[in-house]
Amino acid sequence: MQTKEYDRAAQDIGNIVNLGHVNICISDQHIATHYYVTGLGLTRDPFLNTGAGNMWINVGMSQFHLPTGTPEILRGVIGLVVPDRQALLNRLSRVRKTLADTKFEFRESNDCVETVCPWGNRIHVHAPDKERFGRIQLGMPYVRFDVRPGTVPRIARFYREVLQAPADVVKNGSGPEARVQVGEKQYFHFRETDAPERPYDRHHVQIYIADFSGPHRRLKELSLITGETGEYEYRFKDVIDLGSREVLFTVEHETRSQTNPMYGRPLVNRNPAQTNTDYKPGHDSLSWALP
């Protein structure tokens, strides 16, 4: 019997195994509910941070963390996948009047539905696409950061050598882009732009890594550790040129081990098409993965 040969390297994802959450402050949970839950069709975590100080929003196996405070703006774009584009457009249309006095807007493009949250964060929502997003039908496949010209190759090198993450430089149509794998079909993209760089305002991204101590040792040698949060977590902010030590980009990385008790926690994802006037038993929840 002939044994089928497989490309085993096709399943490698590197040391960063999951993009866990993006943390951006908001000023009003009521407004956030209109956008993230009613508009985008996502789910507020029913178990953790259900009070007025913070709200966690589930999106497949990832989350938004939205503490109440001075609003923060991620310097780039957060990419989501949801299963039904037309249903998304209908929901966004319904919340337009409610969010009229905010920065909320949306428009269709060939690639996605480009939305702006009530405080100005850009969130692009795509339909499932197995070639681009694998089996994700509900999730957060990427965060795209806007960076200065001339920084992309050095950013890719930082992630390869310090975080042990697959990182390469690709063309995006307008220029080079660093693509860093941070999970199964999840990526950080660093896209060069001539636009003035916005000041960093303390928003952060959270990742889980397999080799927890190796990157910590290298980051410590480079004096980049900004927080020893606990047994299962540390933080760093600056992505640097490993030769000159020039800071290329700043965004806090909440870095967790795979032994962190939160790793792999099942997240509740509701089916936003389910209503009390057209209820179908057994269809309350939505899987993050395609069949």
Quick description:
The chain is of the alpha+beta class and 291 residues long.
How is the secondary structure organized here?
Layout lengths: L15 E8 L5 H11 L3 E2 L9 E6 L2 E6 L8 E6 L3 H11 L9 E4 L4 E4 L5 E5 L3 H4 L5 E9 L4 H11 L4 E5 L4 E8 L2 E7 L11 E6 L3 H9 L3 E6 L2 E8 L6 E11 L34
Parallel strand pairs: 1-4, 5-8, 9-12, 13-16
Antiparallel strand pairs: 1-13, 2-3, 3-4, 5-9, 6-7, 7-8, 10-11, 11-12, 14-15, 15-16
Walk me through the structure.
With 291 residues, this protein is α+β, with helices and mostly antiparallel strands. Helix content is 16%, strand content 35%. The strands form two sheets. It has an eight-stranded mixed sheet with strand order 2-3-4-1-13-16-15-14, with helices on one face. The longest helix is centred in the first third of the chain and has 11 residues, at 29-39.
Termini Cα gap: 30 Å
Averaged pLDDT: 96
The CATH architecture classification of the domain at 14-19 and 72-257 is: Roll
CATH homologous superfamily descriptor of the domain at 14-19 and 72-257 = 2,3-Dihydroxybiphenyl 1,2-Dioxygenase, domain 1
- Report the order of strands and helices: EHEEEEHEEEHEHEEEEHEEE
Strands, count: 16
CATH topology of the domain at 14-19 and 72-257: 2,3-Dihydroxybiphenyl 1,2-Dioxygenase, domain 1
Q: How are the strands of the biggest sheet laid out side by side?
A: 2-3-4-1-13-16-15-14
Helical proportion, percent range = 10-25%
Assign the structural class, choosing from mainly alpha, mainly beta, alpha/beta, alpha+beta, or little secondary structure.
Answer: alpha+beta
If helices are DSSP runs of H or I spanning 4 or more residues, what is the number of helices? 5
Tell me the radius of gyration: 19 Å
Query: Biggest sheet, in brief?
Result: 8 strands, mixed
Which range does the strand content fall in?
25-35%
Low-confidence stretches: none
The CATH class designation of the domain at 14-19 and 72-257 is Alpha Beta
Net shape:
globular
